[in-house]
UniProtKB/TrEMBL annotation, chain A:
Signal peptide interval: none
Gene: UBC27
Keywords, alphabetical: ATP-binding, Nucleotide-binding, Transferase, Ubl conjugation pathway
Organism: Turnera subulata
GO molecular function: ATP binding; ubiquitin conjugating enzyme activity
Lineage per the UniProt record: Eukaryota, Viridiplantae, Streptophyta, Embryophyta, Tracheophyta
Record-given protein name: E2 ubiquitin-conjugating enzyme
UniProtKB/TrEMBL annotation, chain B:
Pfam families for the chain: zf-C3HC4, zf-CCCH_2, zf-CCCH_4
Zinc finger residue extent: C3H1-type: 26-53, 54-81, 151-178, 307-336
Stated name of the protein: RING-type E3 ubiquitin transferase
Swiss-Prot/TrEMBL GO biological process terms: protein polyubiquitination
Length: 204, 417
């Protein structure tokens, strides 16, 4: 079983020093077993300025009943990038993270916050020799400049929902030929995501 | 003034079987209750024993008289007065009665019977029952302590010990010195041994209290709770790691160590390691208190091991079973006739730099499987001769140093776990 008392404490602790760490953890629904973590892209990397969302699922028990495993914190939390990111150790398709502390090096003394900090550290220190996404890793090793460019572009596109002002987005979409009122309401429902709004507008 | 009380005492409707007096069965003295709590003002004049070896009287007198309002929650033993006991105690009751009679017939006695010049003749009667009835220490200020009594024999003032004595300098009793630990004026200035003992016990208690206070603040980094604030008593225990000093709840750390490893998780590098510093510990010891120094830790560990050594191992089962921990087991491995299990021959063939260990067949097989993984450092040769299989560990380490041997042993232990 998940130790919910501990999860509760971790959330409180995390919200207390949100200013200094910039790391946010919040429950997705009423259940504390599914959470969303938010980490800022580390400064001095192509991910700078981006805000990355990570889906966290706390394991309840082992795969089989006979395993009799205890859930979190005796099992590592399952983490996956919800925001698309271009990184050798993170799948560009699924967002799966290749990090030892989320697998065999997990320790119950680690918390969601420390795990997210490790993920943040992974962003600034990629390990191309132990890749999750082979394409990205190959690009990182062979053509570093292109890698940096792609990573920065992905950050700009996917990790910055409010990179442009609302007015700019509206005028951009209006230029494409959509009525302004519809553009505004669609943008709002899409949470300010320009691409999502465009998709919605196109699909009618 | 004293007569009605004494008469009441001697003609009490209850047979005075519950109160056993300072002498228990067979003339053995009963431990003084006040001495046991650290402060008996009567010192060596006390009728009760001040020797820790003597047994305390734990029998509830109220129950013996018929009713104890505490019922099953009473801290004293509820024993029905038996015939043998009443005859045994009657021997101590009779002389006290004859004394009471002599007191009632001599009218001049009450003054001399005060606590100060107490003629030590009432061995079975509590002195305070006499005193309180006929003598109020505050009213009767003309009583003077006889000067011929040595200062060491004079008792110390209970009022001063408790805080302040209303009689101040006029008090016939000795005002004790201040005990720095408990803050009471209860050290007899002329009885150095007694004060020293009080100081010692007081200091020990104080230290324990401080340690407990310190322990109460400690959090377990697995459940993030204070260990000593857990809901159930069984959980309010620390788990001491043998190799490092990070505190955990015993339940949390045991849970972690016993959880089955997920794919790729290594037993020794992750599960048996400290969750904080990842240092490998071979055992965890429960303790109700945390330690502040290595000596204290050692003491806790030794006490725990000593306790387990006195309990028979259920796996060993007096030689009928196989204990998976072998000779490293903390529990007692003894046969039915009291003979202890043979000690392992650690240096069987030590001249060639090898260490040989005796294990059960089950463990030996387990080790044989494990040694394939460990080929680079050790090689294990199995000689399946008789039932304890002799396992030879050949260390591929050049020097037969203690460190090399320790590593070999660590490996052996890890195979057994």
């Amino acid at each position: 079983m998940i130790d919910f008392a501990r999860v509760q404490k971790e959330l409180q602790e995390c919200s207390r020093d949100i200013e200094s760490s910039g790391i946010k953890v919040s429950p997705k629904s009423d259940s504390l077993a599914r959470l969303t973590g938010t980490i800022p892209g580390p400064i001095g990397t192509p991910y700078e300025g981006g805000t990355f969302q990570i889906d966290i699922t706390l394991p309840v028990m082992g795969k089989f009943e006979w395993e009799l495993k205890d859930g979190y914190p005796f099992e590592p939390p399952k983490m996956q990038f919800a925001t698309k990111v271009w990184h050798p150790n993170i799948s560009s398709q699924s967002g799966a993270i290749c990090l030892d502390i989320l697998k065999d090096q997990w320790s119950p003394a680690l918390t969601l916050k420390t795990a997210l900090l490790s993920v943040q550290a992974l962003l600034s220190a990629p390990e191309p020799d132990d890749p999750q996404d082979a394409v990205v890793a190959q690009q990182y090793l062979r053509d570093y400049q292109t890698f940096v460019g792609t990573a920065r572009y992905w950050t700009e596109t996917f990790a910055k929902p409010s990179s442009l002002g609302v007015e700019e987005k509206v005028s951009k979409l209006v230029e494409m030929g959509f009525p302004e009122v519809l553009v505004r309401s669609t943008l709002e429902s899409a949470g300010g995501d320009e691409n999502l709004a465009l998709e919605k507008l196109c699909s009618g | 003034m004293a007569t009605p009380l004494l008469q009441l005492l001697s003609s009490s409707p209850f047979p005075r079987t519950g109160f056993r007096g300072p002498f228990g069965f067979g003339g053995a003295r009963v431990l003084c209750k006040f001495f046991a709590h650290g402060a008996c003002f009567k010192g060596e004049h006390c009728e009760f024993s001040h020797d820790w070896k003597d047994p305390p009287n734990n029998i509830c007198t109220y129950y013996q008289k018929g009713v104890c309002s505490y019922g099953s929650r009473c801290r004293y033993e509820h024993v029905k007065p038996s015939r043998t006991e009443s005859t045994a105690s009657s021997s101590s009751t009779i002389p006290s009665r004859t004394v009471s009679k002599s007191v009632t017939t001599v009218p001049a006695v009450p003054h001399e019977l005060s606590a100060l010049s107490r003629p030590f003749i009432l061995p079975s009667k509590p002195v305070w029952s006499l005193e309180s009835g006929k003598y109020d220490p505050l009213e009767d200020s003309d009583v003077i302590e006889p000067r011929n009594v040595k200062p060491a024999d004079r008792s110390i003032c209970a009022f001063a010990a408790a805080g302040s004595c209303p009689r101040g300098d006029k008090c016939p009793h000795i005002h004790g010195d201040l005990c720095p630990s408990c803050g009471k004026h209860c050290l007899h200035p002329f009885r150095p041994e007694e004060s020293e003992e009080h100081l010692k016990t007081c200091e020990k208690k104080q230290k324990q209290l401080e340690l407990l206070k310190y322990s109460q603040e400690i959090e377990c980094s697995v459940c993030l709770d204070r260990v000593l604030s857990k809901p159930s008593a069984a959980e309010r225990k620390f788990g001491l790691m043998s190799e490092c000093d990070h505190p955990f709840c015993i339940s949390c750390i045991r849970n972690w160590r016993s959880s089955s490893p997920t794919s790729g998780m290594d037993l020794n590098t992750s599960l048996r390691a400290c969750p904080i510093c990842r240092k490998l510990s071979y055992f965890v010891i429960p303790s109700v208190i945390w330690y502040s120094s290595q000596e204290e830790k050692q003491e806790i560990v030794e006490n725990y091991k000593a306790k387990l050594r006195s309990i028979d191992c259920k796996h060993f089962d007096f030689g009928n079973g196989n204990c998976p921990f072998g000779t490293s087991c903390f529990y007692k491995h003894a046969y039915r006739d009291g003979r202890l299990e043979e000690v392992v021959l650690r240096h069987l063939g030590a001249e060639d730099g090898h260490t040989a260990v005796r294990f059960s067949r089950k463990i030996a097989n387990k080790m044989k499987c494990a040694c394939d993984l460990f080929q680079s450092r050790c090689e294990i040769l199995l000689f399946q001769t008789q039932t304890p299989v002799v396992v030879r560990i050949a260390c591929w380490i050049d020097t037969q140093s203690w460190e090399a041997e320790r590593q070999a042993w660590c490996f052996v232990v890890s195979c057994m776990l």
